[in-house]
Write a structure and sequence with these properties.
Layout: E1 4-8, H1 12-24, E2 28-32, H2 35-44, E3 49-53, H3 61-69, E4 76-80, H4 85-93, E5 98-101, H5 106-124, E6 134-137, E7 140-143, E8 148-151, E9 154-156, H6 160-171, E10 177-178, H7 179-187, H8 197-209, E11 219-222, E12 226-229
Parallel strand pairs: 1-2, 1-3, 3-4, 4-5
Antiparallel strand pairs: 6-7, 7-8, 8-9, 10-12, 11-12
Amino acid sequence: MSNKILVVEDEISIVEFIELYLENENFEVYKCFTAEAALKIIETMEFDLVLLDIMLPGKDGFFLCKKIREEYRYPIIMLTAKNDEVSKINGLTLGADDYITKPFLPLEMIARVKAQLRRYKKYNQTETDEDSGILSYSGLELNVRKRECSLKGKQLNLTPSEYDILRLLLEHKGEVVSSDELFRLIWHDDYYIKNNTISVHVRHLREKLGDKAENPNYIKTVWGVGYKIV
């Protein structure tokens, strides 16, 4: 069965460009030109990934990203203007999993889409008895089978990427995991290594855990190397 991808972008030429290359990779593509139209179709169909432009007429991409994350966990890739670091960080804060900077090459887009889908499908398939269970540390618990996280009994609302990073750190508890290795383990790709997506996700994880980078209870930065569960 083909993966269903929703493209939310108001520039017709960009939509047609994206649609052409995604369909060449056998993805099933759906198009919306406003956030309002996207919300309607999201309520009636199940998608595997959303490609979401920030600058939309009416409600913007940030609004739509936040609304999607209230109900759904599938990957969101934001489309951002060149060198707009604030928009990238805002998108990740609201629950986006990655971003693509305009203008972008078709191979870059396809690589990022496939990497996000691999990660999402891998960590959402039914766990076997052998690798299911609870990962825990100092009041922090991850229920691997249910993909749920709690801290001292209180449920935490993590994005898919935040969950995957935390799971990997807990699976390697006491060991330092480099940012490059986190990219490879989660996205199975070297394409992202030069951007700061991991550091932004880790910062948001710390905020949800009530953790501080300078005196962490959970996620420690090993400068110049990566991260570890202390």
